[in-house]
Amino acid sequence: MRAAVLHEIGQDKLEVLDDVETVGFGPGKVKIRVRATGLCHSDVSAMNGVLPQPAPFIPGHEGAGEIVDVGDGVTGISQGDRVLVCWLPACGQCPACKRGQSQLCLAGFMNAGTPNFKRPGGDVFGFAGTGTFTEEVVVDAGCAVPIPDDVPFDIAALIGCGVTTGLGAAVNTAKVEAGSSVAVIGCGGVGISAIQGARLKGAAQIIAVDPVASRREAALRFGATEAVSPDELADAKQRITAGEGFDYVFEVVGKSATARTAYETTRRGGTLVIVGAGAMDDNLQLNMFELFFDEKKILPSMYGGGDVLQSYERAIALWRAGRIDLEGLITHRVPLSEINEALDQMRTGVALRTCIEI
User: Fold this and answer.
1) I need a labelling partner for 263 at 20 to 30 A (CA). Which of 48, 251, 336, 341 fits?
2) Are 186 and 155 in contact (CB under 8 A)?
């Protein structure tokens, strides 16, 4: 079958091959025919080594498709069911799950070190234990979440990661209050979803911050009240908040430099939400006095900071009601054979989300 493979960490191009096979199918597993998958920035971060991932590997974790086979012991899912791929399934038994923090369950991460593909030359891993830049993928049954018939595969794929992450950061993690001021730094698919979440919660001012003009223009369509470039942020802070800072600031880039800017843009007593996935050796510096004196809350948000199954259902309900725009997030579509074009679209910032149709 066809799949897009990264041979070595640090390479910037994927090779689309037709000699890849799935492995690992058996009890507790399902095989999914992938129909649509989104390109998320985390895929690029794994390719360049920012996020740890063994290679060679197939990127992709934001996917949807149909069940083609079900292993022994799997219940609740049948051949032909339409599903989205959950890259961080909850085991339901670990301490995090029992505390109601299933987004912190580590069971899914354990799969990342086990190959779920092979080629004549050897094993191939799937990113985050999935790997959706392929025609078929074998995953734990918990990774396959049934979707209603009225939800298209491309929309379901977005809900599987970017929408859930951004929307949940505003709704679950920050719990944005009505009438508040919000700044979102980084306005790709996840940042735009955070903007939509802030709008849903009734924020009065939502400032979108991004160096790419087309993304700033898009942010206004999705609910931002103003959009500025990074070098205009200080002026916006002064104009809108009289220099005090915003009630909520979302960092959706994953770099210490932008996290530091976000901290300085948050008002005393306000909330900084870290959404971007960054590198283990990129350290954010804060001094002990400012932590004490400013009393700013720093809230990391993992996969939307809440129960992912409930978050999926909420996103579908809001989309059906017309309260959030998911179709508009997909600005580009390419076949799997043009995956490297999709990578260029992300790196240059022209795309909010590129859908790879398989």
Assistant:
1) 48
2) no
User: pLDDT at position 106, please?
Assistant: 87
Residues in the chain, how many? 358
Residues 252-256 have a mean pLDDT of 97
Reference 71, options 2, 22, 24; nearest CA is 24
Q: For residue 56, say if its preceding peptide bond is cis, omega within 30 degrees of 0.
A: yes
> CA 159, CA 169: separation in Å to the nearest integer?
14
Place of tokens 């009240």: 225
Among 159, 236, 172, residue whose Cα is nearest residue 198:
172
Q: Which residues contact 324 (CB under 8 A, 6 or more apart)?
A: 163, 167, 193, 196, 200, 315, 318
What ranges in the chain are assigned the alpha helix state H? 41-47, 95-98, 107-110, 153-159, 162-168, 189-200, 213-221, 233-241, 256-265, 288-294, 308-320, 339-348
* Per-residue tokens: 56: 């060679």
Residue 31 in contact with residue 137, Cβ under 8 Å? yes
For residue 327, report the phi and psi dihedrals to the nearest 5 degrees. Answer: -60, -40
Whether residue 193 contacts residue 215, with contact meaning beta carbons closer than 8 Å, is answered with: no
Least confident of 5-19, 90-104, 223-237: 90-104
> How much is the pLDDT for 112?
77
pTM higher than the cut 0.85? yes
Helices (H) and strands (E) in the chain, counts: 12, 19
Residue 128 identity: A
What is the biggest distance separating any 2 CA atoms in the chain, rounded to whole angstroms? 63
When pLDDT is averaged across residues 326-345 and rounded to a whole number, the result is: 96
Task: Judge whether residue 199 has pLDDT over 90.
Answer: yes
User: Using an 8 Å Cβ cutoff, are 171 and 141 in contact?
Assistant: no
